[in-house]
């Protein structure tokens, strides 16, 4: 294969793996490549659902080749992809007895908390399982981004304590966090009235201002009207 | 570490996965339906007779047949009644003359009539007995055998050995097609049936293989010996190979730009070529969607279908079986991906279509299947509408049918209590695909039956999702009553504390705002709200009567009637 620098080799591996998944996914020989790719996604903070589903399928076809550690890593990456349903998609491919493993049971509980917006319980449970979660860089930030996403769907103005609990940040760190988003993400801070603390005003979207949503059903698409032209013409 | 594989196409040669290019040149096939270079060698192979088909065993283990087969009724595989002689001779001729219409008539009509009259409880005559009447044509014999096995599966219970032999036949048939040497045209119905049956037999074999408890030693020995038959790798690779070798994705792309004709000709080739590889490639995309659904990989399944634009008519709508299978699996996959809006829309379209056209299919051999899938899709639609109430997306006629079948159940499902779970369980179990365990069986004692494992997992995860959506129904009921309400008050009415209410409200938002296939957020909610500090503002989607659409349809309909009438005058 010639001598390549480690970086080039790494790029070539990911290019090759994505190509493999697109073009030759049902070949049992690519399993080791897919496993390496999972580790690479973890270390370089990238993510590929298709490649991970491909690997989980191969584990399904040949259960004796399954590595629980790799499955755990895939699931953690999938949690980080919320609000996309990737975590559930992965679970569909994992046999029940494997889902009984302690680490995976724990991740399922975490997913449950996140899916039902129980952020307080989530952060509590996550703190107890630092060892598994900390090895995946970017985990905390990804979950915070998801929490903000859900808050942005729900609130025009959210009380500061609610936000704090959702992203598990308080005090000075929270102040800095808010400063950053006010400067970069279109947030604003408001006082909520005597003795009621601050409000965080989130950017206006069609989701937290439902009256802004265009009522598509009222309009008739042009292609349909076009069918009338021969008759009217 | 894997190098870049030079060949994207891996095929099964019966034992190993080999790159398609390295598959040995097929021996010159004694068939008139292959390209000229192969044909020239045909003359020397023509006297092969039965021996050229490579079966080491006698075709039927007459003693090992399942009791339901006709060894007791005196079935003689070598006896060819006159009607069968005529049938194969004519079919062979029509295929040679590329008379697709006649082929279709014989395939759909004569074959069914003869099966009904003479082969209700026995297989058709063996291919060896029939071969002399068709010049021992290799490809015709593969086609005949495919029909032979399909008939067996439909009317009788195939033995383990027959299942393996059928696999072998598909391998041979697809290999011929993949080598690109076939030059005949076959009706779409037949080509669809091939792919459909291939996937069905795979699913059936996985179920068969997973029931180890009641197997005889001999059957277990067969499973061990032919462990590569119907392997999931083989099945997937054949389907993938058909998609790739046919270049169907490129054809469909070029068609969008007007550079190619495919849909316009219903997939047929009017320039003297063959439609077989192209159309098999097309249908294999649906086949891949189906296999992935059976495995529980809904995301990849939808990806495999992506080159087909289901918002329009296409080759997939020509054969009703393929239309229904495509939409059924698309809808089911969308349901599992929580894209309820997509599922509801597509189910609605196809259910309306079936409502209007099923009377024309009453005599067709697929009628029962059509009805079954119809009922299953109503059940899935009931599930989707209970999880994601909509007033706009469903046609009135479909709603009437739905209410007739499931009104009571849907009302109870929207209550989300224990009874509701039972109903979700019932409907899901009725309507879901027959999920499979693709891995090889484990022969250790004690032998177990694990054919239900895959289904149980999918059901469990589905009900888990239902549980997470449990409180959303009560939110909806309350939101319908108010245009504004404070968080505190609503919490009191719902008998939860404020913090819990906030999480429930956020869950509602999360579950009703799903990620579509392009990664964008789409809202499914018919009732929506937003919170301003601690006041909830409710916005309800007004269901507007769609007058524009109604007038459009009526105008077009009247125009049609008027032109019909004008034509009558001219006669």
How would you portray this structure in words?
The complex is a heterodimer of chains A (233) and B (571). Chain A has 2 domains: 1-137, ARM repeat, domain 1 (Serine Threonine Protein Phosphatase 5, Tetratricopeptide repeat, Alpha Horseshoe), CATH 1.25.40.250; 155-233, Arc Repressor Mutant, subunit A (Orthogonal Bundle), CATH 1.10.10. With 233 residues, chain A is mainly alpha-helical. In chain A, helix 2 crosses helix 4 and helix 4 (68-79) packs parallel to helix 7. Chain A is built from 14 helices and 3 strands. Chain A has helices at 6-23, 31-44, 49-61, 68-79, 86-91, 96-99, 102-115, 119-128, 130-134, 139-154, 160-167, 171-184, 222-226, 229-232, and strands at 155-159, 188-191, 198-201. Chain B has 571 residues and is mainly alpha-helical. Among the domains of chain B are: 158-465, no CATH class; 482-540, no CATH class. In chain B, the strands form 3 sheets. Chain B has a 3-stranded antiparallel beta sheet with strand order 3-7-6. Chains A and B meet through helix 1, helix 2, helix 3, helix 5 and helix 10 of A and helix 10, helix 13, helix 19, helix 22 and strand 4 of B. Strand 1 of chain A pairs parallel with strand 6 of chain B. Chain A: This is Eukaryotic translation initiation factor 3 subunit K. Chain A: Residues 69-193 form the CSN8/PSMD8/EIF3K domain. Chain A: Belongs to the eIF-3 subunit K family.
Q: Could you list some keywords that capture this structure?
A:
heterodimer; A: 233 residues; mainly alpha; Serine Threonine Protein Phosphatase 5, Tetratricopeptide repeat; Arc Repressor Mutant, subunit A; three-stranded antiparallel β-sheet; 14 helices; 3 strands; 6% strand; B: 571 residues; two-stranded antiparallel sheet; 57% helix; disordered N terminus; Eukaryotic translation initiation factor 3 subunit K (chain A); Transl_init_fac_sub12_N_euk (chain A); protein biosynthesis (chain A); RNA binding (chain A)
